[in-house]
Design brief:
The chain has 95 residues and is mostly beta strands. The protein contains no helices and 8 strands.
């Protein structure tokens, strides 16, 4: 399995471990922020998206761990991805 590092230089930068079978970075398996590794329990959504402005293509994974939901973007270049926390389980925001 491959580990990709985000370009963020913070000590708690997110790292994602991927399963790489037929192709590189096929499916995310865990997210590590700081010292804590969270195993991905379920991929709830997977999309292939083309950005309208830049024309860049990426795969979007929405993944659940025990306590959080993460959104992971993996670009075709394989060099950049973004990890964001969608929500913490059990917390609801009213808007």
């Amino acid at each position: 399995m491959k580990v990709k590092n985000d370009s963020n230089s913070k000590a708690d930068k997110p790292r994602v471990r991927f399963y790489s079978g037929y192709k590189r970075y096929e499916t995310p398996r865990s997210v590590t922020i700081g010292e804590k590794e969270r195993t991905i329990k379920k991929i709830t959504e997977q999309k292939r998206i083309t950005d309208v402005k830049s024309g860049k293509r990426y795969n979007l994974f929405v993944c659940e761990t025990d306590d959080r939901t993460y959104s992971i973007k993996v670009f075709d270049s394989g060099k950049t991805y973004r990890v964001s926390v969608e929500e913490e389980k059990g917390k609801h925001t009213d808007g």
